[in-house]
Amino acid sequence: MDANHKFGSPTRVPLLRALRDGSARAGTRLMVSLAAALLLLAVSDVMAYVLGYLIPHSPPRGPAYMVFVRGEVLLSTYISAGLVYLALMFWIWSRQRRGRGIWLGAAITTGIWLVTIGICILVDNTFWGDDEFLIQGVVFAAAGLTLLVWIHLYRRHLGGRSLFDESGVIDLR
Description:
By secondary structure, the protein is mainly alpha-helical. It is 65% helix and 0% strand. It folds into 2 domains: 1-95, no CATH class; 96-173, no CATH class.
């Protein structure tokens, strides 16, 4: 018997191996996805600070040198971390074939929100005054559309046949 084996508990597979071969369950993948997001945000913030130090905003004044992170630098580190995160999510969640519906939903959701961002930028640059209400309406419409897409995919995933026939009687076939 294995020295690490305990009676009544299955032998544990290392986390990376379980992720690599697709045997990790959905809860484990979800927690790893959350941990990866937090770690990548931390790395991107530290990289933004380092780049802010290496690319100074203005010449130093006085004996104390302060680091200021420009918006462009922060945006570039967040975009880089986001691309790494998307690649990592693809690697984590694409290991099993039965999750194809999730990828379809993710692709449609990404498309909805990319179009939403474009419309919001267009609204912000076109309209004057209280354009926040228009932007808020566009965002709420996109959120509702996203929810409808996932409800449709969930119902399609359930599949099977209806419990009742056309006349409303329980179908016992």
